[in-house]
Structures are given as structure tokens and as C-alpha cells.
Design goal:
- By secondary structure, the protein is an alpha+beta fold.
- It folds into three domains: 120 residues, Beta-Lactamase (2-Layer Sandwich), CATH 3.30.450; 113 residues, PAS domain (Beta-Lactamase, 2-Layer Sandwich); 41 residues.
- Helix content is 43%, strand content 29%.
- The strands form two sheets. A five-stranded antiparallel beta sheet has the order 2-1-5-4-3. A five-stranded antiparallel beta sheet has the order 7-6-10-9-8, sandwiched between helices.
- Strand 3 and strand 4 form a beta hairpin.
- The longest helix has 41 residues.
Length: 284
């Protein structure tokens, strides 16, 4: 299978996957296109969907934030993410995580949603589980993240101690991690990351970022790609600030010549001591 055939196959798998809700809507909120997931999961036919505004499928309690998102999409040009509940034709509720990209020139909004109903049900069966995990995550001195297939940030925590930007700034697309990478390191980072797109694999990278305050930080980015049905789904990773270790390493390199000189002097002193002791013994 050549590159073009593989891309076509990946596209077909993504569009036809029952876990990926893909749609195109006009700025008036009406569907222009909806893939088969809407029919398989929610029970609506294509004709029914195309005759309905998107808000008709949204849980009433989520109308406001969804409407605000659609308005934002009709005027902006950045991808944004949000969570909402969709209503099945029979009235049951599904939780979806959306990544929506406005295309102002075409006066449409493109969106892809992932069904997270099961993960939410697990959280609901574990009272306080989210509250218990939050302090644990916040107290770990690393930044954890999940990058979506379109390279937008799906999940991120503890970003502020690493780079000065809080998670909301990444999730709202006000800043991207790629923008923070030092210009001299970008090409090598991209080259190595491209290997993760070929198959599930793991990679540890060390490179520099420029934080909000303009200070350069050395970071270690340990990441792993994941796939489903041979289709790239994203990257999970943890980022650690190793600036202090790098500085200590540089300091040791600078001190090495001096330490070598000290070792030579130490050997000379020991030799002189031995010579002196031999002389004293001889005099006795």
C-alpha cells in the first residue's frame, strides 16, 4: 500500500468509525454533512439530521455553551474544544468531547467528536474519584498531556510550572506547544516526532522551549503514540523541566579542566611526601 492509498484508507476508517462523530455545519447551525456515527449511535437518519439544527441534538442544559461555541466558530479561525451531551432519538444521553474548527471562508464549521460516555460513567460510579485524582495530578512535578490527531491539545495538566501558560490557554488554542519550542530545535523535534505517526511507538526528546517570561528551559518530553485499526489517534506524553540538571552538567564540564589540574598537583604532592619520608628514613 503506497502513501496515498494508506492516507485514503485512514480517512475512510476515521469517517466510518462509529466512535468518531464527524459533521460539517453552516454558521446558521444546520448540518451540511454528518457521518454514519450519528445514525448508528443516535438513531437519526441522514435526512433527519440534515433537516435539524445541531442544537436539537444537544441536551438542553448544554445549549448555552454550545451556542456560544458556534458563535465563536462563525467569527474565529482557531480550533476549540468542549464537552457536551447529545440526545439519542429515544431520549437517552451520550457524552461527547468535541474538537471544532471553523472555516470562515466557506461559512461552515467542521467538527469531530469522541464518545466519552463510558469514561464518564466510570467516574460517576467512583464518587469523588475526579476530586481525589486532581490533587495527585497537580502535585506531580511534571506536565502530562494528550495531543489529538490534528495536534490540538485534548488534555493537559501542570503546564504553568513548566512554561508559564496555564492549561486553559492551551485548550482554548490561545497558545500552542509548537510555538514555544526554541527555533533552533524545531526541525529536529518535528523530524523525530514523524516516526511516531508510522506505528505505535515511544520516544524521549530533550529540547528547549521559551517560556512566557522569555526564559529558555531545557525539557525532557517522553511521549508515546497510539493507534486504532492502524489509524493514528494521538500522542500521550509527560514533560519534565531538566534545566537544573543541564546547568549542573555544564558546570561540571567547566570545572573538569580545573579538577584535572588538581589531580595532577595531588599526585605531585603525594610523590613529594613519599620522597620526603624516604629521605627522613635514610637519615636515621
Amino acid at each position: 500500500m503506497n502513501f496515498d492509498e494508506k492516507n485514503t484508507h485512514n480517512h475512510q476508517v476515521i469517517v466510518s468509525s462509529p466512535e468518531n462523530f464527524i459533521f460539517i455545519a453552516g454558521t446558521d447551525g444546520y448540518f451540511k454533512y454528518a457521518n454514519s456515527a450519528f445514525e448508528k449511535i443516535l438513531g437519526y437518519t441522514t435526512d433527519e439530521l440534515l433537516s435539524k439544527p445541531l442544537l436539537d441534538l444537544i441536551h438542553p442544559d448544554d445549549h448555552t455553551k454550545t451556542n456560544e461555541g458556534l458563535k465563536k466558530g462563525s467569527t474565529g479561525n482557531q480550533t476549540f474544544n468542549f464537552e457536551s451531551r447529545l440526545l439519542h432519538k429515544n431520549g437517552s444521553v451520550f457524552h461527547l468531547l468535541w474538537s471544532v474548527t471553523p472555516l470562515p471562508r466557506n461559512e461552515v464549521i467542521y467538527g469531530i467528536g469522541r464518545d466519552i460516555t463510558k469514561s464518564n460513567e466510570v467516574d460517576n460510579r467512583l464518587p469523588g474519584s475526579k476530586d481525589k485524582r486532581r490533587p495527585l495530578i497537580d502535585n506531580i512535578p511534571v506536565m502530562a498531556y494528550r495531543a489529538n490527531p490534528d495536534w490540538s491539545v485534548g488534555v493537559i495538566s501542570n503546564s504553568e510550572p513548566i512554561c508559564g501558560y496555564n492549561p486553559d490557554e492551551f485548550l482554548s488554542e490561545n497558545v500552542s506547544w509548537f510555538e514555544l519550542i526554541h527555533p533552533d530545535d524545531k526541525s529536529s523535534v518535528i523530524k523525530d516526532v514523524s516516526k511516531l505517526l508510522e506505528a505505535p511507538s515511544e520516544l524521549i526528546q530533550e529540547y528547549r522551549i521559551i517560556a512566557r517570561d522569555g526564559i529558555v528551559h531545557f525539557i525532557r518530553d517522553h511521549k508515546k503514540s497510539f493507534f486504532k485499526d492502524d489509524v493514528f489517534q494521538g500522542i500521550d506524553g509527560v514533560v519534565t523541566d531538566i534545566s537544573q540538571q543541564k546547568q549542573q552538567s555544564e558546570d561540571r564540564k567547566k570545572m573538569k579542566p580545573g579538577l584535572n589540574r588538581l589531580r595532577k598537583w595531588k599526585h605531585l604532592v603525594l610523590w613529594l611526601e613519599a620522597l620526603l619520608m624516604t629521605s627522613i628514613t635514610s637519615c636515621r
